[in-house]
Write a structure and sequence with these properties.
The protein is an alpha+beta fold. Helices cover about 20% and strands about 30% of the residues. It has 3 domains: about 230 residues, Metallo-beta-lactamase, Chain A, CATH 3.60.15; about 200 residues, 4-Layer Sandwich (Metallo-beta-lactamase, Chain A), CATH 3.60.15.10; about 100 residues, Immunoglobulin-like (Sandwich), CATH 2.60.40. It is globular, with a radius of gyration of 26 Å.
């Protein structure tokens, strides 16, 4: 790699992110750092001293070279809010049993801790450097503490825009805009930020990923704003223009609702009554309050809960199961796809996981009916809000019903959707699969979670199918290379298990599916923190289009190592550096939020 001159004393270095240098004689000020490889090439532009690095944000591809710069005494400047993502004393991923337990992480690609980080960049500051005046501007889009830098100088008005925009109509790794798991708010916020940046009237736009623009900048902003708002609106509802539908019950929290003679609803749980006495309960939210147990006895007397049937892996559907076993001699049943996420939630990179394992007593095979007293239930893989979701069909009191969990709601409730979110394993094709399953069964009742049972309407699900086609077009349009999975799913490349307790040996598998129409050649190398050893040599593989493969790594910890440790993997794809885009955690002894004392 070599430096590219963009204008008087302004240079670009291509790396896992683009690094920019402002030169003042033999000194330089860097914008972002990438892998840090640029530091060994500074003599190419006549620089022997770096006055500092100003970071647009703290994703790993921007700052993974920080240790190299710190070792040379180079000041590393971040936004004040970046401290929460860098300082291990404040980082949620270091304080929890898993970054995903009882939470939606919302900040992806966290870096290794940077002890030398300086958190002094603030909105509207002006930093003179040689012939340049650099102004700091807050631009919360790709990350909540994201900054852009505007310079006036010999090269004209230049905007270093970080990952706010890749190019005209394109955004790099747009899953980073998913500030929650169920709305398009992040995409809309990014669009609003771009409107503000457009009005700064830059003559040159320098992104972290993407081409440097010197013409058509206003139009590039406008096209990207339009596409972001298009995607944001589509994420808000899977039922555009559909009218409301009547629920089967009134939304009275804390009440036990009777839907029919043998079907009741309380909070997030359904109760299916058998003629013989025992009850099947669907999902159990957080630890059940005493008021629930009193209401249960008042409604059902001494009937025992015999089975808890799980729709999906989120904590508000499984968290109370083990506690409920103290009151009822129950078994937990779940579709076989869900078992690992229920029994070993720390292994997964999905949001809103329980912080304790829950035992599944009976895994259920997809499409194979199971009998419970007089009922026949058939489980199906039912991806939507999360890819680890199930539906169950049955007949109750003469009505065809489908237990649908958090996927499909009445049109007037949350836009009819549990959310399209890449980190949750969401994908338009998976939503379509589940919508078509509902169309194939045509149940009378959709038994949705969160007090939302409602009647089935065929046109609703035809609308969902059409929505999946449009949202696919919107996501592909926004992806720089058109690849939906690469830029809208953080699981395109992923490590498993995501978190595991430190042992004598810790095995990790890095998996990828090639969703490109051409072969994908990958080189993957672990980057190990202090106290963790293992084979750090790169592993290579070539995948044909559609092929899935995995690379196996084994790590060993120093004796007595405590606390949480982040292991990352450096990835090169077809010769292009993607940076440390994969991570997992090794958890040593320590005190973690959500950890329960030994009993």
């Amino acid at each position: 790699m070599a430096w590219e001159c963009l204008g008087p004393d302004l240079y670009l270095y291509h790396d896992c992110c683009q690094v920019y240098a402002l030169r003042d004689g033999h000194r330089a000020l860097l914008i972002d750092l990438g892998s840090g490889a640029c530091l060994d090439a500074l003599d190419e532009i006549g620089v022997d001293e770096v006055a500092g690095v100003f970071f647009t944000h703290a994703h790993r591809d921007q700052c993974q070279g920080a240790p190299l710069a710190a070792a040379r005494g180079i000041p590393l400047h971040f936004a004040a809010r970046a401290r929460e993502m860098i300082d291990p004393e404040l980082r949620q991923d270091y304080r929890r049993l898993s970054p995903c337990h009882l939470a939606y992480p919302s900040r992806f690609h966290p870096p290794q801790p940077i002890p030398e980080a300086i958190y002094d960049l603030a909105h509207w500051q002006i930093h003179p450097f040689g012939a340049f005046d650099l102004q700091v501007i807050e631009a919360p889009c790709h990350l909540d503490h994201h900054l852009v830098f505007r310079i006036d100088g010999p090269a004209g008005l230049t905007l270093f825009s970080g990952d706010a925009m890749h190019s005209a109509g394109k955004v790099h790794e747009a899953y980073c805009l998913e500030t929650d798991h169920y709305t398009g708010n992040g995409a809309r916020q990014a669009a609003d930020v771009l409107c503000q940046l457009r009005n700064l009237r830059p003559e040159r736009l320098c992104p972290s990923h993407g081409p440097v623009l010197t013409t058509g900048i206003w139009e590039a902003f406008e096209l990207t704003v339009d596409r972001l708002r298009w995607l944001g609106d589509l994420k808000d509802t899977i039922l555009p223009q559909r009218p409301p539908v009547q629920r089967l019950v009134r939304m009275h929290l804390g009440a036990m609702h009777r839907i029919s003679d043998h079907l009741y609803l309380w909070g997030n749980s359904y109760f299916l009554l058998s003629d013989d006495g025992p009850i099947l309960m669907v999902d159990v939210q957080t630890q059940l309050p005493d008021s629930f147990h009193a209401l249960y006895r008042e409604t059902f007397g001494e009937r025992l809960i015999e089975v808890v049937l799980v729709t999906h892996i989120h904590c508000d559907h499984v968290m109370g199961i083990e506690e409920l076993r103290r009151h009822h001699p129950l078994e937990c049943w779940a579709l076989e796809h869900l078992v690992g996420g229920i029994e070993r939630p720390y292994e997964l990179a999905r949001p809103w996981l329980h912080n304790e394992p829950t035992r599944v007593d009976r895994p259920l095979a997809e499409g194979r009916p199971v009998h419970w007293h007089e009922y026949e239930l058939t489980p199906y893989w039912f991806p939507g809000q999360t890819d680890l979701h199930a539906a169950y069909t049955l007949e109750v009191d003469g009505h065809r019903a489908m237990i649908t969990g958090d996927n499909f709601y009445p049109a007037q409730q949350w836009g009819g959707t549990g959310g399209l979110c890449g980190f949750n394993g969401g994908h338009p094709a998976l939503w379509r699969k589940s919508a078509e399953l509902v169309l194939a069964h045509e149940p009378e009742w959709l038994l949705a979670s969160h007090l939302q049972p409602h009647r089935y309407r065929r046109e609703d699900f035809r609308t969902v199918v059409a929505w999946t086609e449009e949202v696919t077009r919107a996501m592909q349009a926004l992806a720089p290379d058109g690849n939906l999975e690469r830029h809208h799913s953080p699981h395109f490349l992923h490590a498993f298990p995501y978190v595991q307790p430190l042992g004598k040996l810790n095995a990790v598998k890095v998996s990828v599916t090639n969703t490109y129409p051409h072969p994908l050649m990958l080189a993957v190398a672990p980057v190990l923190p202090a106290g963790i050893g293992g084979d750090g040599e790169p592993r290579e593989l070539v995948l044909a289009p559609g092929e899935t493969a995995a690379l196996d790594f084994v790590f060993q910890a120093d004796p007595g190592l405590a606390g949480m440790h982040l292991v990352t993997f450096e990835v090169t794809a077809n010769g292009e550096p993607w940076g440390q885009m994969v991570e997992c955690y090794l958890r040593g002894p320590g005190q973690y939020e959500g950890d329960k004392p030994a009993r």
